[in-house]
Each structure stands twice: as structure tokens, then as C-alpha cells.
Amino acid sequence: MKFGSEVHVLTVIDKLPRFAATVTEVKATIERATKRIEKQHALAHMIAKERGVEILCVIQPGSKVERIIRYVEEHNCDGLLLGYKSRSGLLRTLRGSTALEAASHAPCTTILTSLQSDSN
After folding, report:
1. Fewer CB within 10 Å of terminal CB in the chain, N or C?
2. pLDDT digits (tens, 9 = 90+) for 42-97
3. What are phi and psi of 109, to 5 degrees?
């Protein structure tokens, strides 16, 4: 590890059934999402390894902002890099922004970066 640093990739599964009939329904939703995310994490591992960087990928269910902040605190992170999708000012005001909210609560230096869509 260069400079004794670690790179953690945290993906939060927040699209859980609000009124699930059973715990099994919630678990099934988490399992489906986890399989999809694990494919993305495998690609991230491959790209990072090609560049000589080791990463730790983690998947957690729950509220995005709460999970991000808790993870940063529990792992004593020095920095937080958050990607965000650009939205209109009105939509951001009405709906909020996970990245902006997490950045405002993070106990460490935070960098926000805009994610480019494939359609651009």
C-alpha cells in the first residue's frame, strides 16, 4: 500500500420494500441487489489491481447517508469521495442530494465529483 492508505468502496442498498409482507421478501431484495453489485465490485477490483491499488468493497443495506457516515466513523476514514448525478436545482431542492447531505455530516475531508452518464 502506497502511503499506508486503504481504499474502501461502500455500496448501500437502499431500495428495500417499505411494506414487505415478510422478512424473506426483504432478504430476497438484498440478495438480488448484492449479486448485481458484486459484479460491479469485481470490475472495480480488476481496474484497481491493474493500477496497483488494493480496494476493499463492502455492501450494506439501509439508509445511504446514515450508512456512509457510520462507515466513515467506524473505520476512522481520513477522506471521503462521493459521486453524484447532476440534477436540476429545483429537483435537488425538492428531493435533496445524498452526496451533499453525507458531505455535510462527514467527520472528515470530503470530495464531491459529478458522475458522467453514458448518454453524454
Report:
1. C
2. 999 999 999 888 899 999 998 999 999 999 999 999 999 988 776 666 555 545 58
3. -60, 135
Helix (H) or strand (E) holding 34: helix 23-50
**Which DSSP string do the residues of 54-107 spell out, in sequence order?**
-EEEEEEES-HHHHHHHHHHHTT-SEEEEEE----HHHHHHH--HHHHHHHH-S
On the CB side of 1, CA atoms within 13 Å amount to 9
Instruction: Give every CB contact of residue 60 below 8 A, 6+ residues apart in sequence.
Output: 10, 11, 12, 13, 67, 71
Helix (H) / strand (E) containing 37: helix 23-50
- For the chain, give the number of residues: 120
Other beta carbons within 10 Å of 68 = 25
Domain boundaries, the chain: 1-62, 78-120
Contact assessment for residue 111 and residue 80, using Cβ atoms and an 8 Å cutoff: yes
